[in-house]
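User: Quick one: structure for sequence A, then sequence B.

Assistant: Sequence A:
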Amino acid sequence: MANSNYAWTDNPTVSGVSQCDTDVLNDCLMHLKYNHRTSGGGFSLFDTKITDHVLSGDEALGWVIQGGVVTMTYPDAVNVIKEEYSNGVECTDGDVTYMLSPTGRRIADISQYEAVDRLYETKGHAPYYVYDAVNQQFYLPKTKLLQQFTTNTDLVNTVNEAGLPNITGTFGGTRDVAVAPTGAFYRNGWTPAPGAGSDTYAIAFDASRSNSLYGKSDTVQPPSVNMLIYYKVGEVVVNSDLALIDAQEMIEDALQEVDTKINDGLSSLANASDALRQTQVTNCILEAPNNIKIDINENGYLVLKSGSTLIIPAGLDDEGNKKFEHKTLESDVVFTNTDAITGNLKDFMPIVWYSNDASTAHSIGGVCVSQMFAGETAPTNAQDMYWYDTANNLIKFSGDTGASWEFAMASFPICQVDVIFESASVKYFNYPKAIFSHCGFIGSAYWLDKEVKYLAPNGKSETGTLNNIEGVTQDVQIHIITDEESNNTASKCMAWVSSNSISWWGNASIKTSYTKPSVTGYTRYFDSNENYWKKADLSTTFTNTNLCPFATFNINTQNQILSMQPYEIMQVAIGNNSVFWPDYTAGITISAFPYTAEYDGWLTASVIGDQGTGQNGYLQINGNTVVHSYGLDYTTSQWVIPVSRGDVITAHQVGSVTIFPCKGGR
């Protein structure tokens, strides 16, 4: 419909400033629908029965078109009728005296109700509003005549009397002296007779010659009243073709409104989901880039899939700030350089080398985790080393125990993976222990990528819902573990994000508890009762913090990070639209009993207990007759494992393992 100042609704309660052009209230083809919750009745705009109904101020909460709001309250309409009546000119039609309003309404006082009713009973049409000033109500015009549609407001409420056009015609005398027949008569021949002027014509009758209506149809004019074929709402202009309600357009509008309601409903569900997340979920990574996509090909080689995005330390800008470039692969990169491997290679850290302008990926490399270093001072610890030079923000390589260093644009490591050696000709990559999709490490440095969304606990509301500070990292964040932080002690540490920066906490007791733990030095714990991470340094006082953990790391005495477990990895996966977690609130516990993967996707596996051999536990995945094993280090006990539907997973030499399956994301 042309006008947009209306809305389809099921809500009968309407209020607000009138937008209804009230000069055509009496012109409506069909009555307004009044629908009050307690009235149990009303009359319908789209009901073909024309009935009279009094709208009282007590019961009226508002008027509606069948499902569509006319933003005019009942008192507004009464006031309009009152004003029109007061400004009208007195007229009389038969027994009915009324006021002809400036807009053409015929408004009778309540004293004329019986006269109006008699007119309705005798004539079938009473085009009068009946205004009851005492009770502040009015009756609508009523008719039982056939409604004849019009768009001419000058004809509104004029009555078309029943009847047919008249038929007239003439004919006369004999040939040569008779005048030509007229009207419905015509000559269709003549009869000769002796003598001049005595021939006579044959006369025929055809009503269409008098009025072209005849002969075209059998239609006659019944008694009727002219009515507008639309009810005007909002800014509609009288006689505008666009203002006429076409039935098909109305149906299309209604369907469009249904679609809008559905979309609004879906949006409401999404908003409800967001609200639930904001009030019932906390202390987790909500969304994170799924940058690294890895597979193992049929030859056992590690494949970095096209579409993967690598982070490249690209030196410093003019102001001395670290620059990072994100490069997305346009084709697969296959790690095949295993010729020098003569035994099992544990914790290999593959990287990708780029050209000097970081435009093209041209080679691959990597060393074991113990040969990765970071800091401002070049290391001299091993023959082959990778060094993340944090002073210049470049990754460099040395093959001569640090005597010389070469560098080009190289990516951060993409994963941590074991290489299995069976023979000189049979070497294959195991599936990665950790994939650095949004965070990772190299030497004593760890990073968190941009566009990571997190919820930092921030207490509870008065109603008990969880408060959070939602943050998003704007750029790549780097942290270097220093001797002062670690005290050169091997430990497990936790990385935190807050206000677009990351921090580190090591040598600490990290707990989830409802009660404050005993303070013995540096301690942090998550108080799930108050929804805060709390910390204590060397004091006995805990203070609230607005931090969110994103990973835990194991470090050695040289501050090298040896392994990483992303914090709440399942929440990270939920943030990826391509991943679906059937049940992310409860894991599946397996031991010697096999678990069959339900989807192509990933498992997050966490060791619950061991059998006294924590370093030797493993998972076995049997798919397509190929068996892969994954070591489960009890001290670094969380792995992300790709699986295919139908793969059978079994845990060995561990007490039990809890796994969280997800669908997709591979």
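Sequence B:
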Amino acid sequence: MAWIYLLIASVFEVIFALGTNATEGFTKLGPSLLTAVAAGFGIFFLSLALKTLDVGVGYAIWTGIGSVGTVLLGTVIFDESLNLGKVVCFVAILGGIIGLKLVDRSSAEAEATIPAATATVPEPVR
């Protein structure tokens, strides 16, 4: 469920980023309210995801999906430029996101199959 929350949070992150552009410096009330609400929901769903996911993994994926989604939709909505350099960099970000998800899944599976070590703590030297 954490991954679903993270995906929802990422969608709100994209809405927040695109909305910020539409506020024209927070001088337009409608886009400003939409942007504030999207930011709040994004952080709310991120916090739900981080109950289970490591904060570093969750935050990296949230910002990565937000960045890629914002660039892709920014090219469509705001007619922003997209060149080969940007595409290569965003493919690298997507690769990192996929890698983090795979590593997170494999480490969780490894923890489930490896019994916890029973360590003894040595007595302090007096």
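Helices lie at 2-22, 29-49, 55-77, 84-113. The two ends are 50 Å apart (CA to CA).

User: Thanks, that's what I needed.
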